[in-house]
Amino acid sequence: MRNAAIYLIVFTLTSLGAHSSHAQIAWEGKLRDAHAKAKQQGKLMLLHFYTDNCIYCDRLEAGAFRSASVSQSINQNFVPVKVHGTKNPKLAEMFKVTKYPTDVIVTTDGKALSHSVSPQQPDRYIAMLAEAQVSFAKTRSTLASAGQTAPPAKAAPANVAPAPAANVAMTATTPTATPSTTMAPNSLPVQIPAPGAVAPSASPAAASSAAPSAVTGTSRQNQFMLPGDATGRVRSASVTKSGSVQASLASARTGSMTLPGDAATKQPTDNATASKTTDAPSKPELAIQGYCAVSVVNRGEWVEGKPELGVIHLGKLYLFADKDSMELFLSDPIPFTPMLNEIDVVRFFEEKKIVPGKREWGVIDPIHNRMFFFADEAAMLHFEKSFDRYLDAAIEVMDQAIEEANPGV
User: Fold this and answer.
1) What does the pLDDT average to over 46-70?
2) What digits encode the pLDDT tens for the residues 152-165?
3) Is 373 helix (H, G, I), strand (E, B) or coil?
4) CA 321, 325, 331, 335 torsion-angle sign
5) With bands split at pLDDT 50, 70 and 90, how would you rate the model's confidence at 274?
6) Contacts (Cβ under 8 Å, ≥6 apart) of 222
7) pLDDT of residue 370
8) Is the confidence at residue 357, as pLDDT, over 70?
9) The domain containing residue 268 runs over which residues?
10) Which of 169, 195, 226 is the last residue in one of the domains?
11) Are 149 and 221 in a shared domain?
């Protein structure tokens, strides 16, 4: 029921934005002014933290924030204000902001409803807004059912989308927002909960017991999504792999990268392969389904690679959109190589399983700008909510596998 309410709000907000192609977000200049306006209009506050030299801040400005549906959704239901985190370190510390861009949604009485790294896709950004509205409706309904006196109802502005009905937004559980911290009396009139406790870093030897299937809702902590098509969705895809991580990275040495033609003429030399192969070697599997990895990482675009511009790396054939992209990859392939060779890192650490990732469940992490692919949405959401736990562990496993595959290199 909770998800149904979220999707209903997303549909409503998107529909409202379809009629305005040049709408702009009505940012307030000061936090206090935003608070006063939100209180007067009965709206929630949207605090957007950004900083300089932030590639994802720039992408958000050029992408989702130019979307008519996003701007309409914000203007009709929130009072937004931008906060430069570097120039306002006390505010950033107060609101527990450690990554950029970050959005914090609060009520006028100081209750935090959302605290997350900003989603990059317009539809996912709207989903974040909808999640906060559902949480707000649940909180009000919970207070009402507990017999607490609610403040006098204000007439909602004509341009405010109605909140979901109580019987839709209510669930058997209490709101999932983390407890608010108490602020000093002279501080700004909002209080922000600390982000969820960060679990210990995952490692190849010890994985967390949290199961990805426990992830629910559409609240997204770290949404640096891979680019989608015109509709914001990525076409379905699958990857076939078997064996261990070390086996999948057996040809990992950068110095031994070959062009497809060279690889086709070489005969397998190891005993295991020779015993199974009597004719011509099988063709290497396409990496990222044949799309140019450089275009995805550097330009945020799914560009099909050209067959004549190919390089075999980690046992897979990488195709490129142009010679410059291929040369850049050859000079340093690591930034453009999917983590664990497209293996689902959540399934690997949590379940000790080698599960292929899929392109439609792919993200780029905000720390190292590396591609991660997952077997399903649950694993992707789990990663986004606690991605810090997996980054170093995944890099360690990959480096170890490459070292074992290439001793002495």
Assistant:
1) 91
2) 544 444 444 443 33
3) strand
4) negative
5) very low
6) 99, 116, 117, 363, 365, 366, 383, 384, 385, 387
7) 85
8) yes
9) 212-405
10) 169
11) no
Of 105, 139, 169, which residue sits at a domain end? 169
- Name the amino acid, one letter, at 16: L
So what's the pLDDT on residue 259? 57
Indicate whether 218 and 366 sit together in one domain. yes
Could you tell me if residue 380 is inside a domain? Answer: yes
Q: Is the pTM value of this prediction over 0.85?
A: no
Within a domain: 181: no
Same domain, 16 and 160: yes
The pLDDT assigned to 315 comes to 85
Do residue 245 and residue 98 come from a single domain?
A: no
Q: What share of the chain is helix, strand, coil (3-state, %, to 5)?
A: 40, 15, 45
Beta-strand pair 78-84/44-50: parallel
- Taken in order 308, 311, 312, 317, the sign of the CA dihedral is negative
21: in domain: yes
In a domain, 78, yes or no: yes
User: For residues 59 and 120, what is the distance between their CA atoms, to the nearest angstrom?
Assistant: 7
Q: Are residues 106 and 216 in the same domain?
A: no
State the DSSP string of 122-133: HHHHHHHHHHHH
Question: How many domains does the structure of the chain reveal?
Answer: 2
Q: What span, in angstroms and rounded, lies between the C-alpha atoms of 63 and 82?
A: 16
DSSP state of 297: I
Average pLDDT score, the chain: 68
User: In the 8-state DSSP scheme, what is residue 180?
Assistant: B
Place of tokens 């006063």: 36
pLDDT band at 204 (very low <50, low <70, confident <90, very high): very low
Q: Where in 85-173 does DSSP place strands (E)? A: 102-106, 112-117
Q: Which helix (H) or strand (E) holds 55?
A: helix 55-62
